[in-house]
Amino acid sequence: MSETTPTGRPAPVAPPVSGIAIADPAPLGLAGFAMTTFVLSFVNANIIKETGAVNVVLALALFYGGATQLLAGMWEFRRGNTFGATAFASFGAFWLSYWALVKLSPANAGDIHQAIGLYLLAWCIFTAYMTLAALKTNLAVLAVFVLLTLTFLFLAIGAFMNNPSPDAMTKLGGWFGIVTAAVAWYASSAAVVNATHGKTVLPTWPR
């Protein structure tokens, strides 16, 4: 029996959902994460000492690390990839929250080093349990999460210690961040190159 509307008329039949393929958003999300992490980590490692360098980081955090990763996460939801959706949407939100934290904090906010340390520690915890999930991906992605967990850990310790800048732990976190970005770029490039060539050109060592 066909369904009817409250007026007794036959209900309209919904058109079939088209099977439009959605491209893999992971390379885009990884690229946005890698570039933003790379630039910020140069500042954290005290390699770039310019006071205005944070403005470059904020621009990337808002558009590439933030908005682009968030979109990648939404596309991963559409593809049914729980891990990718959670990772990209969360780290996209991380970069957007970083932008808001730096850009919107009043100049007279006062000392918040313990709160910043807690903020970084919370992201360390999130990244650590996502690392457990990454055990089922490939070695390239797993390496990104292991390195990022350590990066957040060292940055959190540096924030809690609140030593005069440049803090040794913050600098160490910066160096780990640079390595993390390099590995994330490799994972991104491997996904793009392999998909384009239709074969494995850059290995990611599936598990």
UniProtKB/TrEMBL annotation:
Subcellular location: Membrane
GO cellular component, as recorded: plasma membrane
InterPro entries: AceTr, Gpr1/Fun34/SatP-like
S-adenosyl-L-methionine is among the record's keywords: no
Annotated keywords: Membrane, Transmembrane, Transmembrane helix
Membrane topology: Multi-pass membrane protein
One Pfam family this sequence matches: Gpr1_Fun34_YaaH
PANTHER family: ACCUMULATION OF DYADS PROTEIN 2-RELATED
Protein known as: GPR1/FUN34/yaaH family protein
Taxonomic source organism: Catenulispora acidiphila (strain DSM 44928 / JCM 14897 / NBRC 102108 / NRRL B-24433 / ID139908)
